[in-house]
Amino acid sequence: MTKPIHVLNGPNLNRLGLREPEIYGHTTLAQVEQICREAAGDTALVFRQTNAEFQLIDWIHEAIDDSSALLINPAGLTFTSVPVMDALKMYPHPLIEFHISNVHKREPIYHRSLVSPVATAVMAGTGARGYGYAVQLLRDMVADRAAA
Q1: Which residues form the catalytic set?
Q2: Which positions does the site annotation Transition state stabilizer cover (predicted)?
Q3: What would the DSSP string read from start to end of 67-130?
């Protein structure tokens, strides 16, 4: 049996739908989870959000041992957290860094990701629906690895 895809969300994403809708839209985190579950189809999916850096790191460690792929939106920790980057460096499977907004069109602090150099792929600017695209891409990456 294929291990689940883990979808991990960082700080403030629990406020989706309310927080800066002109940037992040009106989709809630519960709706994002539904998008991910629909895209996962019959593939198991673990979906989580935390505002705590240590919790995100613990979940990355868990994903290292018990997942087939990882989709992570580290939010603000993308640009500040060496510990999150170090944990992700250990991740041995397909890994997508995801951002709802196009971080490159935003303030300069959002232009330098610590996560991108260790990710398999980066997706940004596709809005909340992009989570579904990312989950589907991870399913394909896992299938390609299994076929190789």
Answers
A1: 24, 99
A2: 19
A3: -SEEEEE-GGGGGT-HHHHHHHHT--S-EEEEESS-GGGS-GGGG--SSGGG-SEEEESS-TTH
